[in-house]
């Protein structure tokens, strides 16, 4: 059976590529399994500082594989495995960047929202098509709703209307929408910046950004002070401070960026 997801590492960037164009990179059982495996590999590889989630073909991801969903009972639906995959990306200690040259639909938009940074061609389109086939965009709402402004979230979830990359950036789904010919350069701009951060500092910052904050400001300050002091005094923080004073790049910066 041919591999549907590929993984390669170069200059500190681990690129995971969805390569199932025959079904528009739909989230089939095989694709989900391979995507999880390559995400595990990227997390375990010290050479990987940043992960890019990319695709072949005209479509980034069409959502769940509906052929596999037909006639399956609720406990046999592939969507049951999807929350763990989205959470794996959302909580990854390494930054994950989505790179879209083409459309994303339904669960594919959930993948985009789970990533820390999302960059697409202006011509890429998006839609929450679930209601139009009689299902609910429930699972993806966990990653999508924290990204979107409230009004467009209601509008687009309820209507299933298609929207382009520019609007996706305006409503918070994307960080950047650029002309197609500038997509590679824009993704590299982000990965280069992310690779400059200390690996432990990036992981701790991601955890901070996604964690529930204490109810009181005093408790919040206490927790954040402990986190800050720990990293100032830690090996990585001390190396960063020394590198700043010595006007050099810290040891963790990939050779390609020094």
Automatic annotation (TrEMBL):
Gene3D superfamilies: 2-enoyl-CoA Hydratase, Chain A, domain 1, Lyase 2-enoyl-coa Hydratase, Chain A, domain 2. InterPro entries: ClpP/crotonase-like_dom_sf (IPR029045), Enoyl-CoA_hydra/iso (IPR001753), Enoyl-CoA_hydra_C (IPR014748), Enoyl-CoA_Hydratase/Isomerase (IPR051683). It comes from the Bacteria. GO terms for molecular function: catalytic activity. Belongs to the enoyl-CoA hydratase/isomerase family. PANTHER family: ENOYL-COA HYDRATASE (PTHR42964), POLYKETIDE BIOSYNTHESIS ENOYL-COA HYDRATASE PKSH-RELATED (PTHR42964:SF1). This is Enoyl-CoA hydratase family protein. It comes from Saccharopolyspora rhizosphaerae.
């Amino acid at each position: 059976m041919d591999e549907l997801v590929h993984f390669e590492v170069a200059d500190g960037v681990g690129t995971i590529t969805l390569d199932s164009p025959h079904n528009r990179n739909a989230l089939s059982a095989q694709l989900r399994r391979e995507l999880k495996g390559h995400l595990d590999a990227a997390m375990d590889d010290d050479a990987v500082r940043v992960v890019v989630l990319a695709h072949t073909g005209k479509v980034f991801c069409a959502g769940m594989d509906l052929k596999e969903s037909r006639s399956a009972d609720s406990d046999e639906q592939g969507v049951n495995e999807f929350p763990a995959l989205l959470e794996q990306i959302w909580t990854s200690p390494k930054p994950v960047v989505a790179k879209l040259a083409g459309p994303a639909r339904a669960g594919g938009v959930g993948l985009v929202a789970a990533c820390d940074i999302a960059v697409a061609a202006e011509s890429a389109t998006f839609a929450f098509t679930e209601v139009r086939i009689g299902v609910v965009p429930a699972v993806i709402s966990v990653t999508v709703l924290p990204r979107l402004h409230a009004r467009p979230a209601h509008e687009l979830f309820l209507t299933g209307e298609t929207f382009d990359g520019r609007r996706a950036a305006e409503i918070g789904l994307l960080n950047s929408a650029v002309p197609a010919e500038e997509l590679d350069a824009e993704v590299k701009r982000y990965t280069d910046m992310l690779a400059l951060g200390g690996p432990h500092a990036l992981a701790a910052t991601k955890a901070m950004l996604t964690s529930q904050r204490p109810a009181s400001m005093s408790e919040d300050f206490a927790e954040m002070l402990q986190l800050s002091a720990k990293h100032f005094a830690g090996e990585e923080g001390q190396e960063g401070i020394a590198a700043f004073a010595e006007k050099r790049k810290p040891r963790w910066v990939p050779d390609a960026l020094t």
